[in-house]
Specification:
heterotetramer, A: 2 domains, 8 strands, B: alpha/beta, Rossmann fold, 12 helices, 14 strands, globular, binds thiamine diphosphate, binds magnesium ion
């Protein structure tokens, strides 16, 4: 006696590569100020990104992971989340951080080898950048569980890459999110590569979204270069989460247009042709075309925006470069709430060796 | 004042703190309905509800990471690893996040979580159920490693651990979970962390230990007293950060020191203590610091476990050896 | 523009609770000697199990995990695997071990606190019992990968419980099995409980089989008390694996009829009613009814079998109890291929302390 | 004889052994097409095929466990963790399986696997990319922990590690991956494991170190020589099991000892070495054994990393201190 259980994931797209709607846009898309703000943030993010790479190349910043190709997803996240929500990022979420209140200079400080780059003055609640892959997923469900324990109507957005979906932390977290109906949205940014490992070697699955089925939560595919699709799916997922209906997984399909980091050379493992094709699906260009098409944007405005973004970034760089190194004693002073007695001799030694004032 | 066992004292401390701080929540495998495989959390789900006493899926990485996430929100999660032998999957979360969140965000995000695990051998348990790998955690800056060795200290140190604003790995010597009962006042009074406890004063030799081995150490001190040797016994209690002052003071007085632990010798916490004492008390020492420890091998299954565990006579013999010098 | 991807898992059952076929049985079911051998192994396993529990209760064995309710699955595994295949067990696979050549006395020795209980004289290749949950899944894919690297037509069967499916090791292994098309079959024995944690708290998914979808491999549900269903699905999965077509996941649904281990008291967390109902689906009784129905079995034969099994078990117990403790030095002598110089003083100390001969 | 760097020597050893033993296979993240993020495996996929040089999904538990599974079948897997900071998810597999398989099956199943990871700071890397937690592995009975500190030793020790019938954690000091070149004969000759290497003989003080710190230690020895102090320099190389004999012999001669390591001090491998020497060479020592180490904190991000890392002048100062006694 055979029977069967059926499952599915859906897939969403609004704009074609030329920025023309394939379907009626969601109603919120009528808020043109929202769409314009999104576009501006994408351009600012890309401007910042280019500058950060340049700083690294000239020895003024450490290894840096370019956000090229992720601007649409990050911007959608930054817009859809409320200040009360908690963002649990990985390390390629610059576009979202900017909208969440992280300063550009703070991002530079982090990649410039300074812990103060995670002290985020104007973004007190979001989790810091997570470098150990997928580990942040467990924090996301922990935070979501805290919200449920306290009966709050808030939600968590957790970002990770396609590579991260192979790691146990993510899969265990998916399962908890499903078992406990947690208010969390996992946003998998499938940029087709995990350093040199292509999506096809990462997993034998047809989609990443289908991994949601293992956690018993809905899985959605969206075109990650389509601002309307990402936003719409995320708004629904967040609403669902805040309403106590549980978690979702969104796979945003895009492409890592840059090297993995400034320490990487992607030409070692992928073809120029593939990269060229990916550029044709670039989400910023696509949204720009949409805006032109809707007569919401002009070459003059574009010119002005470019100028403004450059100025904003230059100011941030100046701020960053003006930050003197922290005192050596900082390495001990933030380890615990209060310096344990056991560490006092070591702190004293740091003071002697590096001439820092005692606190 | 009730007479309670060590595991009951753990339960009492959890109950007290949950009662007084709504932010305290518990999570782990089989801790809610079942009350934990050692019954450390028995009755707490009934009393505080399943929202604060949570059975998790079977996933230690997740347990560690979820607790960390909760802690970042100002909850005070107390996560249980069912046995220390199953803590390793949580290692990445403990090392790369719990221990570092405050430091890497310069105090913006913190991790006031407690990670409990029963540890140690001697209860005829199956494979992987008798681990003593406290040294792994003691080596990680940013983690506190706390081990109680009596019901009173279990109560007071666990309260302190939960109230502590930073992560604590709280290891419970399961061999003595029910070995002794002791009156424990349920007044919510914490004991100090980062402090060794001198359990017995003496002049001739300093015996340093923690966890279940404290009991063999105290017995050895009794036997030595019969031989006219006066041993000071110190329970380290907080293995890291280490209260070297108390240890050094004692050795300055006695001039001799024996360290006893159940974990294997190579790279055990005894090594750090011995190295610290040998360096700082170089001129005080009249004999080398000697370690009485488990062997440098995997904890044997239970038919051989007593051959592995330090026995009273091993301690006595070590003391006789250092006294002879 | 919405589109969707569909997935499914199937579910298989042949016998009803009364042992009557619901459908035509698979052709191999005509081999009555195979079916009878299966039945005999199930009864032997259960006889052994009762004895092991009794030994523990009388202080002659350590904590022991009863196999009650798993006899059908284990027997099917033992029968379907060839000697060349590799079995990667967890700790409740007694029925399979027996058919793979592990001695009953070795099983007792293991749970009796003696490492020699994993030295398996007549079963050289299978992996030892794995206590740390789900860790063995990674070994299974490693072994399967070795087979692929060497172009061998062998397969791996990896057993785990429902609780184990929450742990990252399992999920990471599923993914590798799918990505690398490995010759491995994951047999999840869903006995509804992980110690005191019911299946419903373990995961929010409708089935466990659907977790296969996250690895991109086929997932199957079978009635784990139905010898024909388990065997048939496993035979197909093994054939697929050996033919180089890749991995499968089978969820065998059964019930843990005993306590988790002798250290557990299941009445603390589950109802007598639930247990009673589960007994009605007992797979041994069901197969016995089938055999009676097919006139392949008589009360006399049953009587004889019970007697034989008891005798076999008693012999094994005698063997077990006659094993003297290992020399203390064994704890060092098997750690490395050759005792490192650093350990010589410790070995000498063991010899002095416990009067063992030097080797 | 080619002049090669340490990382090139790693590549040479892998190539030699793959060429001579068909059972040797490599697995890890980005090791095949990309040749590893440090290029340690560059060219090997092209030479030996993707069946023997495998890019894995991004999952360290899996990498460790898969290698173990392969090893049980008589393969000789060499698994790469991309950085030591990402090894922790593999901890359970290393501790509970790799280290124990032989012991728990009484030799029936074994684990001849090598687990490679670049480690240590000083290369201006991002967070989590500068770890030195070798002590965690050295404390696990059943694991060998091997650290080369020159191209020649990288070549010879890695060959030995792969041929070794038991698991080896092979940690490569990435700060000196390309710091020096040295002629290395590609003859497949292994160096002994479980043996310290005396790099420089001396009479006044024994300097013990490993990994990248060996270089500051040798520089310190040069400076000390200018001051008329003759330092013996020992590269521990195999941290566990530890060759105490070589260390003790040297200290018996010099009477003074300084241990240098990059890892934090508390519970570092230096503690075990100091404790062992202080015990066994009690009567030989004319000064306490002193440790020059990283601070007991998380390795700082790169702007402060040089304040954390032991410097040549720290070593010189420590020697001056012990000589003064
Ligand atoms: C646990 C862990 N393992 C390995 C690494 C090294 N590493 C950094 S990024 C990366 C690839 C991540 O790929 P993906 O998740 O797809 O994110 P992307 O970089 O493409 O945005 C790897 C292997 C790490 N940071 N953490
Ligand atoms: C990593 C790990 N965590 C916890 C345990 C303790 N433990 C032993 S069995 C078990 C439940 C396992 O349940 P399941 O996988 O369903 O298998 P079953 O016992 O039901 O056959 C637990 C939590 C363990 N052995 N390993
Ligand atoms: Mg990616
Ligand atoms: Mg179960």
């Amino acid at each position: 006696m055979k029977s069967r259980y059926d499952f599915h994931v859906d897939s969403l797209r609004y704009l074609n590569d030329q920025g023309l709607p394939l379907d009626a846009l969601p109603t919120w898309a009528e808020e043109s100020e929202r769409v314009l703000a999104a576009y501006r943030n994408m351009v600012l993010t890309r401007t910042f990104d280019q500058k950060a790479i340049a700083l690294q190349r000239t020895g003024q910043c450490g290894t840096y992971p370019s956000v090229l190709g992720h601007e649409v997803v990050g911007t959608a996240i930054g817009q859809c989340m409320t200040p009360d929500d908690v963002f649990v990022p990985y390390y390629r979420d610059q576009a979202a951080h900017i909208l969440r209140g992280v300063k550009l200079s703070e991002l530079l400080l982090y990649w410039g080898g300074d812990e103060r780059g995670s002290a985020w003055q104007d973004c007190p609640h979001d989790l810091p950048i997570a470098v150990p892959i997928a580990t942040q997923c467990c924090h996301a469900v922990g935070i979501a569980a805290a919200m449920r324990i306290r009966d709050e109507h808030r939600a968590v957005v957790c970002c990770l890459g396609d590579g991260a979906t192979s790691k146990g932390d993510f899969l265990e977290s998916l399962n908890l999110a499903g078992a406990w109906h947690l208010p969390v949205v996992f946003m998998v940014i499938n940029n087709q590569w995990a350093i040199s490992t292509p999506r096809s070697l990462q997993s034998g699955t047809e989609t990443i979204a289908q991994k949601a089925i293992a956690g018993g939560i809905p899985g959605h595919l969206v075109d990650g270069n389509d601002y309307f699709a990402v936003t719409d799916q995320l708004l629904q997922a967040l609403e669902r989460a805040r309403a106590g209906k549980g978690a979702s997984l969104i796979e945003a399909v895009t492409y890592r247009l840059g090297d993995h980091t400034t320490a990487d050379d992607a030409t070692r493992y992928r073809s120029a042709e593939e990269l060229k094709q990916a550029w044709e699906r670039d989400g910023i260009k696509r949204l720009q075309r949409y805006l032109h098409h809707r007569a919401l944007w002009s070459p003059d405005q574009e010119q002005q925006l470019q100028t403004d973004c450059k100025a904003t970034v230059e100011l941030a760089v100046a701020d960053y470069l003006a930050v003197p190194p922290a005192p050596a004693t900082d390495m001990l002073d933030y380890l615990f709430a209060k310096l344990p007695k056991a560490l006092e001799p070591q702190r004293a030694r740091l003071v002697v060796r590096h001439g820092q004032e005692d606190v | 004042m009730p007479n309670v066992t060590l595991v009951e004292a753990v339960n009492m401390a959890l109950a007290w703190e949950m009662d007084h701080d709504p932010n305290v929540v518990l999570l782990g495998e089989d801790i809610a309905t079942n009350g934990g495989v050692f019954r450390a959390t028995v009755g707490l789900k009934e009393r505080f509800g399943y929202k604060r006493v949570m059975d998790t899926p079977l996933a230690e990485t997740l347990i560690a990471g979820t607790a960390i996430g909760m802690a970042t929100q100002g909850l005070r999660p107390v996560a249980e690893f069912q046995f220390m032998g199953f803590i390793y999957a949580g290692m990445e979360q403990l090392v790369s996040h719990a221990a570092r969140l405050r430091n890497r965000t310069r105090g913006r995000i913190t991790c006031p979580a407690v990670f409990r695990a029963p540890f140690g051998g001697g209860i005829h348990a199956p494979e992987h159920h008798s681990e003593s790998t406290e040294a792994l955690f003691a080596h990680i800056p940013g983690l506190r490693v706390v081990i109680p060795s009596s019901p009173q200290r279990a109560y007071g140190l666990l309260l302190a651990a939960i109230r502590n604003p930073d992560p604590v790995v709280f290891l419970e010597p399961k061999r003595i979970y029910r070995a002794v009962s002791q009156p424990v006042e349920d007044t919510g009074e914490a004991l100090p962390l980062d402090t060794c406890f001198t359990l017995r004063e003496g002049d001739d030799v300093t015996l340093i230990s923690w966890g279940a081995s404290i009991h063999e150490t105290l017995q050895a001190a009794d036997r030595l007293a019969e031989q006219g040797i006066s041993a000071e016994v110190i329970d380290v209690a907080t293995l890291s950060p280490l209260d070297r002052d108390t240890l050094l003071c004692s050795v300055a007085k006695t001039g001799r020191c024996v360290i006893i632990h159940e974990a294997c010798r190579n790279g055990g916490v005894g090594a750090e203590i011995a190295a610290s004492i040998a360096e700082a008390a170089f001129l005080d020492l009249q004999a080398p610091v000697v370690r009485v420890t488990g062997y440098d091998t995997v904890m044997p299954y239970y038919r051989l476990e007593n051959f592995y565990l330090p026995q009273v006579e091993d301690i006595v013999a070590a003391v006789e050896q250092v006294i002879a010098l």
